[in-house]
Amino acid sequence: MSHKFRVAVCGGGISALTLAVTLGRYSQVPIDIYEAASEIGTVGAGLAVWKRTWDIMCRLGLDAEMDKRSLSHPSEGENLALILRRSDQLEEGTVAYQVVSSYSHIPLHRAQLVDMLKSRLPRTCTIHTSKCLESYTRCTDSSYILRFTDGSTATTDVLIGADGVRSAVRKSMFQDLSVQGKLPPDLLSPEAFHKAVEPQWSGITVYRSLIQSQKLREISPDNPLFSAKAPMNFVGKGKHIIAYPISSGTLINFLAFDTDPDGEGKEFQGKWVCDTPKEEVLNLYKGWEPCVQSLLESLDGVVSRWAVHVGGSLPLCVSDSVALIGDAVHAMTTHASAGAGQAMEDAYILGRLLSDELTTESMVPKALKIYQDIRLSVANNVVAISQDLGNMYEFNFGPYDGEDRENKDAIMRWGQAIFSKWRFHWIGIPEDDWKTARRRLTDEENTFCQTEIRYDKISKSLPVA
Q: Per the database record, which ranges form the FAD-binding domain (predicted)?
């Protein structure tokens, strides 16, 4: 069918590309992607593909792209998902708990996922690079004018903000709601409004690097990472390290976390992302077990230091024909390995709604509201889960404070609490959420048609002037 509306997406990351592929898979809706960088790329290294994410990838044809690249697939069956190893001591550490899932997952380099998504982009998708949104305004005909920092403009009927934690679409949307007097009550105070519009420091600093597996093997041939069947989480008081192989085992994705509980919500002083000597990481983990020291020794001379910023728990993510997806609405910590998966779920549900034959231009605001109802509370819950997991890894929250290392009952309760928070990854599939959304869309369309019929009857019954 012919769709009589245009979609513009600000941002060219995983959520934007997934939305474009979904629209192309299920419709002929024209879509323009406006990316601030000079090319479509990605930031970061590894991610985990869990059951729910894999279901989306299969429906979009990415399983075939995986086969072309000789990449393995997740599958049904008991699987070791995460190994928690107590490591903040000089002697050899011990495995404290193992999270076992009912569906396997696979590690994937972000660049691989982006390349696969790009290979599935439809002809109806046009990419514009070096286009950073400054703001947007709504016209009287319900279209939108997009203003970019280079002075250029564009128009669209539907605007999607996939522009990350510093989202210009989010900022412009809430400013517009404020001007119209349509802000929800819990955003009326200046402090609450600022938190909704501007990203907040989580109090977490993470040091990222990719380690050559061969280099680590030469330094530490018996390192437990080589025999681990799942990502290894080296845990300790106030800090933890996640490490696991990617790129067919040739690289190890390395993330070292340092948490300042008092820093949460405060303004971060300095650059959010910068390079720093590896000695900074070595100093943080002095006194940790030998295999961690070998891992740190394998780092290159410079690592990437990130001040992790997150979004506030937004009460809404749509306004008229504008919607937010991915990090623009729920930027989260990495502790649940869920950021990319949640972004893809946003994009898939929204893409199916916009692709549907019932979604005419006049129905778009209702379709976006359904997207919000289906996705926002779920994503906000995952944000909270991720935060809780980070605190539990570092013994700042939950049934075990990490003090008594011989208290096996408390350690078991701690591990089980972590398991319970991981379970969402392998329960249900997004297609079930889409079916719920489709029923809602049908109900809305029927209501809309009945209203139109009643209005038409009333109009015909009125006397002609």
A: 6-183, 320-384
The region that residue 226 occupies, defined by phi over 0 for left and psi between -120 and 50 for alpha, beta otherwise, is alpha
What is the Cα–Cα distance from 427 to 425, expressed in whole angstroms? Answer: 6
Asked whether the beta carbons of 239 and 179 are under 8 A apart, the reply is no
Please tell me the distance from the alpha carbon of residue 33 to that of residue 347, in angstroms, as a whole number.
13
User: Would you state the structure tokens that stand for residue 444, as one six-digit string?
Assistant: 């809305």
- φ/ψ of 3, rounded to 5, equals -90, 135
Task: Collect the ranges in the chain with pLDDT lower than 70.
Answer: 1-3, 44-45, 448-465
Note every long-range contact of 356-364, with CB atoms under 8 Å and residues 24 or more positions apart, other chains counting: 356/26, 356/27, 356/438, 356/441, 357/1, 358/441, 358/442, 358/445, 359/441, 360/4, 360/5, 361/4, 361/5, 361/142, 361/157, 362/448, 363/441, 363/444, 363/445, 363/448, 364/5, 364/157, 364/158, 364/321
pTM (predicted TM-score): 0.92
CATH topology of domain 7-72+110-199+312-401+408-445: FAD/NAD(P)-binding domain (3.50.50)
Q: What is the pLDDT of residues 239-260, one digit of tens each?
A: 999 999 888 889 999 999 999 9
Over residues 318-361, the pLDDT tens digits come to: 999 999 999 999 999 999 999 999 999 999 999 999 999 999 99
Kindly state the tokens that stand for 217. 């093997």
Which amino acid appears at position 223 of this protein?
Answer: N
Under a CB-based contact definition with an 8 Å cutoff, are residues 24 and 124 in contact?
yes
Q: How many CB atoms lie within 10 A of CB 190?
A: 8
Residue type, 5: F
Sign of CA dihedral 51, 75, 115, 111: positive
Task: Of 387, 406, 317, 338, give the one whose Cα is nearest residue 50.
Answer: 338
Amino acid at 68: K
| CB-CB contact of 361 with 157 (8 Å) | yes
Q: How is the chain split among helix, strand and coil, in percent rounded to 5?
A: 40, 25, 35
The label of the residue with tokens 């690289």 reads 251
Q: How far is CA 177 from CA 173, 200, 257, 313, 398, in A?
A: 6, 21, 37, 17, 38
Domain 200-310 class, CATH top level? alpha beta
Residues 419 and 398: their CA atoms lie apart, in Å, by 12
Residue 1: the pLDDT is 46
Question: Cα separations (Å) of 449 from 86, 154, 207, 362?
Answer: 61, 32, 55, 11
Domain boundaries, the chain: 7-72+110-199+312-401+408-445, 200-310
Cβ-based neighbour number of residue 334 at 10 Å: 22
